Amino acid sequence: MTESFVYAAARTPFGRFGGALADHRPDDLAAVSLGGVLVKAPRLHPETVDDVIWGCANQAGEDNRNVGRMAVLLAGLAPDVPATTVNRLCGSSLDAVLSASRMIETGDAAVVVAGGVESMTRAPWVLPKPSRAFPAGNATAVSTTLGWRLVNDKMPTEWTVSLGECNEQLAQRFGISRARQDEFAVRSHRLANQAWNAGFYDDLVLAVGGLPRDEGIRLDSTVEKLAGLKPAFRPDGSITAGNASPLNDGAAAVLVAGETVDLGIDPLARIAGRGIFALNPQDFGFAPVEAANRALARAGIGWDQVSAVELNEAFAVQSIACIDAWRAQGLADPEVVNAKGGAIAIGHPLGASGARLVGTLAHRLAESGDRWGVAAICIGVGQGLAVVLENMGEVR
Predict the structure, then answer these.
(1) Does residue 322 carry a catalytic annotation?
(2) Catalytic annotation on 166?
(3) Which whole number is the average pLDDT over 323-332?
């Protein structure tokens, strides 16, 4: 067994639903991030990439028919570079990174590009195909942008409630107030803006279509403004459009390779531990807790050694619930979570978010000189994924 490393990361800006990236197909966005990460390795010949593993949650429209393979071809790589597309919903591109690391560690590959894409703007409406010709009833077009669709009647109703309702239940279960959620959301916008202004994202993000930075960051976000928004899922609920991640478009890529390859750059981080966890579908927002714990156990470290965390902010409430749990288990400072902003501000194009987390975490460790970091993500229908990275640069 060898070890696997993150060498480079690149992503597009994340655009708003119907915003600056609305005219860009998901396969084109994928090709941008794929090509962008490859040029960061000056001695890598693209035709020597052993595999491309790409995540996408929808795959119902222009992202169908193995969008990872389409990205390879559109990026101008040699046709003999293989690719596959994986679907673990919101965790798809983190799943791709974990799969790439396993390929490296088992010797099945030396260089793999992992990533993901989602265009929630361009997600199509679909019609269920009738089981027999010319049905007498009406046919309803179903949006594929987000959430359950064409639900199997055998599924218990408590499993198939909306993602927002799931998190209202989480807020009730842990007693997490609307005020805490709004404060967390404002922090996300503030830190994301600060990170962009400080140049942190300059080397990570590739401008696309005239969009130079993440489109959803609100410089004027305040707790007072968010307090005026109406609840989105319950009349008396706490979740609003302001304290949940928006709908977005974007793509992200990570270059994963072994220690013996000569790419012309040093590795940023070692992939030290992986964690997967599943629980009741309605509790999906809390799944990162145990996924991260398992990744830490496999890395042989505890929360007291972790100095950086990238947690996907699907909803402020589930992020707070996870952070509270980790603090009880030894995470000393909650401010190390999403110190460069999170998905509430940056955005959450489902299939791309996991790779964004890994790239951001690797660059945070390189910047700070801290040794250990964790990236984790919750996944609809009751799953969570996590990875532990060890900084390979100078550690303070």
Answers:
(1) no
(2) no
(3) 97
